[in-house]
Amino acid sequence: MRVTIGLPVYNGAATLAEALKSIFAQTYSDWELVAVDDGSTDGSLEILHRVTDPRVRVHADGYTRFLAARLNEITALATGDLVARMDADDLMHPERIARQVAVFRENPAIDVIGSAAYVMDEHAIPRGKRGYLVDMRPARILRAGLFVHPTVMFRTRWARANPYDPEYIRSQDHELWCRVSRDLRAALLPEALLFYREPGRFHLAPYIRSCRDRIRALRNHGPEIIGPAGTWRLVQRMHLTALSYRTVHALRCERYLLRRRNTKLDSGEARHAARIIDRIRATAVPGLADENLGAA
C-alpha cells in the first residue's frame, strides 16, 4: 500500500529539517511526501526545494490559506492509498508508517487510525506521553475530541469524502471527528508513534481561538447527537476551559497545565525515546547537508 505523507508547512524552518529526517528514517519505503507551503516567509520553502528525492513533491502558491484548506489540498494531490498526517514541528517514530499500514491491511473495514504520542519540549527532549486511552462513543468525542491530530492516517477515499471544514482555522480536527462520530470506523494504537512538540509556554490567543471553534462545532453537531441540554453543558464546560487557560496564563504556570495533560515518562521510557530521537537526527536527507538544516 502506497502512503502519501502530507506535510503542511508554515514558517517551520527551525524544526522542518528534523521533521524531514524523521520521514526519511521510516522503515517503510513505499511512500511519497506531499509538502504544501502555506505562504512561509522564513526560508521553509527553500529547505523543501533543496530535497532531491523523487518521492518528494513541493507545492506552493504564495498564499496563507490555513491548515484545513492545506490538508484538503494534500488529500486531493495524494496518489497513495493512505494519507498520513504530519506537522513540520513534530517527528515520526521510524516504525510509524509500517505499523499503521499493517493495521490497515489486517482491518479492511477501518478508515482512520491514530496512535499515542510522545510529548517533547522545544529542544526535542521527551517529557511525557499522551493519547493512549480513548473512548470512541460519539458523546465522548464531542466532549474530549479523539486523536492527537498529527498521528492520524486515513484511507484516501475516506478523506476525500470527509474533508476538513476550512471555516475552522483552529480545532479543524475536532470539528471533523464530531461531524463523522456516529459512523466513524477508527482504531487507536497504544504505542507512541509520533513525537509531538509542545513548548513549555503557550501563546494564549490560539488556545482561545481553539475553544471558540470547538464551541462552534459543538453547537453545529451536538444537538443531533446528545441533544440540546447535553450540548449546552458541553458548551459551558468549554467556556470554563477557556477561562482556565486565561487564568493559567495570567499566573504564568503554563508548565503545570501542560504537565497535567501528559503522562510522565519513567527514566527507562525517557532514555528509550531519546535514543529514537538520536536515530532520527542521524538520518540523511538527500540534498540537505547538515550545515543547511536550519536551527532545528
Protein described:
- By secondary structure, this protein is α/β, with parallel strands linked by helices.
- The protein has 2 domains: 3-199 and 264-291, Spore Coat Polysaccharide Biosynthesis Protein SpsA, Chain A; 204-255.
- Helix content is 45%, strand content 19%.
- Strands 1, 2, 3, 4, 5, 6, 7, 8, 9 and 10 form a 10-stranded mixed beta sheet that branches.
- Helix 5 crosses helix 8 and helix 7 (172-180) crosses helix 8 (204-251).
- The longest helix has 48 residues, at 204-251.
- It is globular and about 55 Å long.
- The two termini are 31 Å apart.
- 42% of the residues are buried.
- The model is unreliable at 291-296 (pLDDT under 50).
